[in-house]
Amino acid sequence: MGVMSELQSHDSLPRKEREKLARQKEILRAARELFVSRGFHETTLDEIAHHAEFGKGTLYNYFASKEEIFFGIVEQAVEETLAIARESIAAPGDIRNKLLLYANKLISYVKDNGELLHVIYHELHRSNTPANDSKLREIIDRANGTWEILAKPLKSGIDDGTLCNCDPVQLVVLFDGMLRGYCFQQFAVKRTRVSDDFSAAAELITSVFLDGIVDRKSKG
Questions:
Q1: Which of 29, 44, 64 is the last residue of a domain?
Q2: For residue 159, what are the domain limits?
């Protein structure tokens, strides 16, 4: 189980285990802030321990290396986006409302965490050791769970004839790709934003995905 999964399920654990997970979370929070402000390679374990207000020896009780902390942060980001998908699909309304809610929430998440996500993206492409490759594959498999979650209402729409008879996961991959492409364009480091009307962008992406871009009135 990943770090974030453990943190999410800690309520039923004994007190000592809850305290341990709370310290892990505090170390990850400190590391996130430092990786954004200083960069991954420029940040030291001593600085993370100091920022989290722990001794370095205490830090080693929870994480064996800076790389392990980094992957803990990546797991957190994955779990946060999975939570966005779950909350959106669980919300009342039809398929359009659920996908629109997901689009709005994901855009807001990337806007608030864009610098951290840039650090993650940049560092993942430099982590090419066999051990890191294995860990990365695990994280990617976990992240792909977002598609399985979002595919559920699409499958219902396919089953009742509302949507075309296509693979719901492939449809979701297309939708999520449009959404993440927009986020990359808007929030990539040192890029100029195309627009600040994120709600309108979420509405447009959802509409294009579900309705297409052909003007029905022009068909005659």
A1: 64
A2: 67-219
106 and 162: one domain?
A: yes
Whether residue 67 contacts residue 40, with contact meaning beta carbons closer than 8 Å, is answered with: no
**Measured between alpha carbons, how far is 97 from 107 in angstroms, rounded to an integer?**
15
Res 66: pLDDT:
94
The answer to whether the CB of 116 falls within 8 A of the CB of 36 is yes
Q: By 3-state DSSP, what share of the chain in percent is helix, strand and coil, each rounded to 5?
A: 75, 0, 25
Are 119 and 139 part of one and the same domain?
yes
Give residue 7's pLDDT.
47
Q: Are residues 99 and 186 in the same domain?
A: yes
The pLDDT score that the predictor gives to residue 19 is 84
As a whole-number percent, the residues of the chain with pLDDT over 90 amount to 67
CB 51 within 8 A of CB 134: no
- Enter the pTM of the model: 0.85
Query: Total structural domains in the chain?
Result: 2
76-95 pLDDT, tens digit per residue, is: 999 999 999 999 999 999 99
Say whether 103 sits in a helix, a strand or coil: helix
Closest CA to 99 of 217, 220, 206: 206
144 in helix, strand or coil?
Answer: coil
Shared domain for 128 and 31, answered yes or no, is: no
